[in-house]
Each structure stands twice: as structure tokens, then as C-alpha cells.
Amino acid sequence: MDSQKMSLGFLSLAFLFITCSSAEFLIQQVTEGRGTENNSSYNLQANLGVTRVLREERPSSKIVTIAGYSVIKERTEVYESSVFEAAGYKWRLVMYMNGNKNDGGNGYISLYVRMEETESLPYGWEVNVDLKLFVHNPKQHKYLAVTDGAVKRFSAAKKEWGFGQLIALSTFQNANQGYIVQDTCSFGAEILIVKPAEKQEKVTFISNPPNNVFTWKILRFSTLEDKFYYSDDFLVGDRYWRLGFNPKGDGDGRPHALPIYLYAQGFRPNAVATNTWGAVNLRLKNQRGSNHRQLYSAAWYPIRSGYGVGVNNIILMKDLKDTSKGYLVNDAIVFEAEMVKVSVTNIVPV
């Protein structure tokens, strides 16, 4: 009878210990959204190709919180999280709290992401992932993001990727570091699918494009006011252009020199609207010979209309008004723009 009482007492004590331990060991899992990436990180450290960055934003795909770390800190078993969805696929977090010895994890915590429920995927499937794994640092109110910058290719032959040396146990368990607070710690994952682009934006530079010379004759020059005058628009490449000038001068050339500018305007229908390269020979024509005044100008023109590039001194006013030189004839001048190179942008297959 006494031995039976002792046995019952021992069993009761063991049950009480197990119950208390179970109450201490609570694993809380949080799943959030689809795989997206934030980029407000700082405090970069690199070690053998792996970068460790502290950032404020929580992981976007999965968070697992362990309340009662001391219960399992010496355990070598693997912990597998519940299945969660990110970026259209199913996954699990796989944690080795004392390191995966088969992946160089001695003295470290090892953390991986494993792809699940792949039976419905087509034969030969592959999923490319930009993977980040995380350790929460409550003391700093930040997450340590761990990545190596390499795209992880998940497939039927390789469903699990991660880091055998996520964080050193000596660092993780150091109370001054702040990863364990009130016996609680958290880990996470961020999964971004890397889908190869099927199309690309191709910028091509065309030398001497069709219809690349535009001539503008200005009559009654002596009657023009002190303001900018503009030509009609003309189309070269995918974009409309126009010339503009002030007969009284502009900028540093005012009032001693005549300016001329090339302006980028709108785009032809269905054109890809991007910055446009425009290289042009700007000329003031000599109407009595071939001694034209010419200056070269080249620039990236922004998408917005009305941006002008050119020169403020294609000719001095005294030379222009000297009728014997042939630039001002019958109170008229002639400008010419020769577009020697323009860029054209198209969306094409990669």
C-alpha cells in the first residue's frame, strides 16, 4: 500500500511538472499578407556573402513567436510552423533552435523556408524567390533581416532554402543584445517571387532619321517684339519638336546676340513616352551663300513639353543687321534645324 501511495504521488508530481512546463511553452504564429519587400534598412553587416540588416518594418509573410524560450533552448529537435500562404504559394518555417548540424549550424540558430502542397504544380516547376529571414530585436524595436542576395530556386528537387547560421547563439542569448525579452523571441520570413520579365524597354539611337531637316523663315524681322516666337511643330522620330527665339536676345547674349533653341513637344500617337535624346545642328542660314552660322546642341529632353536647349549667341546682332553679310535679307531671316540623332523607345520581348 505504501509503495502504491508513493507511486501515485510520484505520478501526480510528474503530471504537475509537465502541466506547468506546457503552460510555460507557448508558440504563437502570425501570418501576414503576401510577399512584398520594404527598403528602409540600415546598419549593414556582411559575413561570407550574408548580410544582416536591422530595420523597423515587420516581415511581410510570416512571424513565429516563442513565449517560453528557456523551455526549449537546449532542445535539438526541429520545429515546423503551420502552413502559410505568401506570393501565391504555400510554405512552412523550419527552425533549429540549436542549429542544423548538417548545415554548419553548430553554435547558431538555423532557419529555413520550405515549400508545401506542391502536388498541383506542373511537372518541372520552378519558383524563384528573393528570400529574407528575420530575428526580432524587441530592445531596439527592430528586426534583423538576414539574406545573401542570391535568388533561391525552389523546385521538386530542392523545396527548402534558408540559413544554417542565421544568428550566433552567443549573440542571441546575450541579454544585452535584446533578442530575448521576458523569455520570448520571434522569427519571421519575407518571400518575394522573382518572375523574369517578358518584355523590355529598348532605347535606340537613330542617326539622320527621315525628314530630319526643318526650315523656318521669319518675315518682318524688324517689327518683332521683345518676346519669344515659336515655329510650327515638326515630327522627327517619335516626338514633335519646334524652334523658338527672342529677336531681342536672351540670357548672357542679350541684347548683343541672337538666340535659337530647340524645344521638345508631345509624342506621336502610340509612342512610348520617355526622355528623348535630341542632337541637332542649329543654323542661321546665309541667304546669299553657304557661309551659314551653325552650332551643335545635344541633350536628354524630359517627357514634359516645352523644354528647350540651344544657344543664346548664334550670331551677333551687329553682324545680323549688316545686310552685306547675307543673314538678314528683305527683313527676313531663316533658321534651320537638322536633327542628326534622336532616340526612339519601344517595348519589345526580352
From TrEMBL:
Keywords: Signal
Signal peptide: 1-23
Pfam family membership, one: MATH_2
Residue stretches making up the MATH domain: 59-191, 211-339
Name listed for the protein in its UniProt record: MATH domain-containing protein
